[in-house]
Amino acid sequence: MKSLVFGANGQVGQALLHSLAPLGAVVAATRDGELVGGGRCESVDLANGTGIGSLIERVRPDVVVNAAAYTAVDKAEQEPDLAFRINAEAPAAMARECQRLSIPLVHYSTDYVFDGRGHRPYTEADDTDPLGVYGESKRAGEVALEESGARYLVLRTAWVYGLHGHNFLKTMLRLGAERDELRIVADQVGSPTPAWLIADATARILDQGLKSSGVRHLTAQGQGSWFDFASAIMELAVASGRLARRPALVPIATSEYPTPAHRPAYSVLDTAGLRAEYGLELPEWRQALAATLA
Ligand SMILES: NC(=O)C1=CN([C@@H]2O[C@H](COP(=O)(O)OP(=O)(O)OC[C@H]3O[C@@H](n4cnc5c(N)ncnc54)[C@H](OP(=O)(O)O)[C@@H]3O)[C@@H](O)[C@H]2O)C=CC1
Ligand SMILES: Cc1cn([C@H]2C[C@H](O)[C@@H](COP(=O)(O)OP(=O)(O)O[C@H]3O[C@@H](C)C(=O)[C@@H](O)[C@H]3O)O2)c(=O)[nH]c1=O
């Protein structure tokens, strides 16, 4: 099976290069044709979608996996056009070409498509209502795939972290080394999910073949607040010697940490559908964090 991976330098993209390799050839595409780990690959700037269709046509993969996205949640409030070009128009262009060539398309979306007013895990049938530009642009990407007529799978995930790239784990390790005290929001609840888990699950799904088109939820199991996540990071980082000492962590309300974009208060995703359809077991988020740091 030959895969074409857009966004190969991102957190999920880098993990996909490893996870998809046992299934066959993996053709990587990045913005500038360079891989962060070294080496050249295909190049396409998704903000200017002209090269997308021609690249898919030239590579003729058995599956396209789009891990590229505009993920700067706060900055998106000032750059809505760019966020929509990358998160909605580029996946739409991929879907058009995939539909024309009968190639299945795997794409990722976010818990931030929900408004966070729920009190039980969101299912795929629940209504979306994003609070900010990033979530709106990601929802527009989901709709574009739904309407394309392509065979597709949108994997909605959440709170992605890893040892590569920009994420909350890396921010906490950096700030934890610099400061004696960190103030962390304790009233936003979700499911921290490592990039390797998303990539592994994608490979297990592709190994079986897409069983149906649609949106499915994919996160680590269980739930916690950003404060819980930070507390678990500090505990494991000190135990493993990554941090010399544990900074004091202060739980705060969202109102005490103002940001340009509003974020959902509760965005836990119900993954039962995906687990049943593909027979996947997903680890609890604290176990997944421990495995990542180990
Ligand atoms: N991060 C998170 O917490 C979450 C992410 N998701 C979704 O998961 C998917 C993967 O996210 P993640 O791996 O964290 O994202 P990253 O931000 O780590 O990576 C995104 C990649 O997209 C690339 N990209 C951005 N703009 C362009 C462009 N104009 N042309 C070409 N490439 C571009 C970036 O390239 P470059 O390196 O050159 O900037 C980067 O490598 C996305 O769909 C995201 O929305 C869902 C929930 C949570
Ligand atoms: C750095 C920091 C953040 N926070 C808060 C701000 C915010 O509410 C929360 C998370 O902050 P971040 O900006 O790191 O995370 P954020 O960019 O909101 O993360 C999101 O990214 C996009 C791409 C997604 O799709 C989401 O699933 C989610 O992972 O933590 C603190 O309370 N204290 C701190 O010191």
What would you say about this model in short?
The protein is α/β, with parallel strands linked by helices and 294 residues long. The protein has nine helices and 13 strands. The protein has a domain of 199 residues: Rossmann fold (3-Layer(aba) Sandwich), CATH 3.40.50.720.
Describe the overall structure.
The mean pLDDT is 97. Helix 2 (50-59) runs parallel beside helix 3 (80-101) and helix 7 runs parallel beside helix 9. The protein has nine helices and 13 strands. The strands form four sheets. It has a seven-stranded parallel beta sheet with strand order 3-2-1-4-5-6-11, sandwiched between helices. By secondary structure, it is α/β, with parallel strands linked by helices. Helix content is 38%, strand content 17%. The chain has a domain at 3-159 and 194-220 and 268-282: NAD(P)-binding Rossmann-like Domain (Rossmann fold, 3-Layer(aba) Sandwich), CATH 3.40.50. The chain has helices at 11-20, 50-59, 80-101, 133-148, 168-178, 195-208, 226-239, 272-278, 285-293; strands spanning 3-6, 26-30, 42-43, 63-66, 105-110, 152-157, 160-161, 181-185, 189-190, 193-194, 214-217, 224-225, 248-252. The longest helix is centred in the N-terminal third of the chain and has 22 residues, at 80-101.
